[in-house]
Amino acid sequence: MSVKQSPLKAISTAALFMASVLGFSTSATAVTFQGKFEQGALVRGTVPAGSKVLLNGQAIKVTPTGQFAIGFDRDAAAEQVVKVTYPDGLTEIKPLNIAPKQYKIDRITGISKKIMKPDPVAQARAAKDAKQTRAARDIFSEQQAFMQSFIWPVTGRISGVYGSQRVYNDVPGNPHYGVDVARPTGTEVVAPADGVITLAEPDMFYSGGTVIIDHGYGVSSTFLHLSKLYLNVGDKVAQGDKVAEIGATGRVTGPHLDWRLNWFQMRLDPVSIVPPMEKVLAAQKVAK
After folding, report:
1. Is residue 106 very low, low, confident or very high in pLDDT (cuts 50, 70, 90)?
2. Best CA proximity match to 35, nearest among 67, 63, 66, 65
3. Are 167 and 193 in contact (CB under 8 A)?
4. Torsions phi, psi for 212 (to 5 deg)
5. Segment 261-277, tens digit of pLDDT
């Protein structure tokens, strides 16, 4: 004797079969993203717990509760792909369209050869400093502070932007990978999110007083040109805690904070994870 299936159940069964054939997930909660898909951006994502995530075929570390971070560098390709394998074994493939950004390029001529090529001692010191910062940014921890709503470590006039570049005597210099906020020496700098201090050096060749805060899952903040450091490696910080003071140390022309955001070694734009500075300053003015 044959059992007649209800039309509703037949449709549901057919939909499930087609989803499995096409590789789509039937999970109640699919992948969601927080952030803009553009060059220089840090994007946070959420998937059902137990899911696996790939970005362009590379495995991405996911928290036990289903959060993850991905980044798109200064010159990221327009076409990228996220693939999620859900706990039910089904997959979802999401093509991403990464918007390009226009960067400020300044051309400077007449620079002396001495300035263009630092002496060997200075170069060796800078290389040692770079090795230390790379090691700190390579650290993986299971902190989940990277999912917080970040705040500005200091507020004020933005004097330098991410991605800008100078061309000296027709030779391109390294792009600027941070956002500069001009404030007087001694202005206090606070943690933009919870974390752990992984580097605290008072006198690096290029960056002067330097602090790195690990926010977890490869996301870190770096503060450069500091005049005073309050904390040491291993110290824990909560969002808003005072960590240092602005200065003009290292190779700079005036006091400011250079805030840099990293996803492991990928250098990203801190502006991608905080409210616009003008809105923050306007709110502060109203609060007064």
Report:
1. confident
2. 67
3. no
4. -120, 130
5. 999 999 999 999 999 99
> Is residue 254 within 8 Å of 208, Cβ to Cβ?
no
Task: Tell me how far apart the terminal alpha carbons of the chain are, to the nearest angstrom.
Answer: 80
Cβ contact 263:70 at 8 Å:
yes
Picking from 42, 69, 97, the residue at the C-terminal end of a domain is 97
Residue pair 243/237 in contact by the 8 Å Cβ criterion? yes
Q: Do residues 245 and 188 lie in contact, with contact meaning Cβ atoms separated by under 8 Å?
A: yes
Q: Which two tokens stand for residue 131?
A: 């090795």
| Nearest alpha carbon to residue 253 among 202, 203, 180 | 180
**Region of 159 on the Ramachandran plot (φ > 0 left; ψ -120 to 50 alpha; else beta):** alpha
pLDDT per position as a tens digit, 34-79:
999 999 999 999 999 999 999 999 999 999 999 999 999 999 999 9
Spatial distance between the Cα atoms of 249 and 86, rounded to a whole number of angstroms: 49
- Do 160 and 22 fall into the same domain? no
Structure tokens at 21: 């054939």
Determine phi and psi for 187, rounding to 5 degrees: -65, 135
Helices (H), the chain: 7-22, 113-116, 120-137, 277-287
Domain endpoint, select from 97, 124, 159: 97
Is 2 inside any structural domain?
no
224, 84: one domain: no
Report pTM. Answer: 0.87
Percent helix, percent strand, percent coil in the chain, to nearest 5: 20, 35, 45
Domain that holds residue 63: 7-97
Give the count of domains, the chain: 2
Q: Note whether 50 and 191 are same-domain residues.
A: no
Task: Report the candidate in 244, 198, 199 with the shortest Cα–Cα distance to residue 225.
Answer: 244
1 within a domain of the structure (yes/no)? no
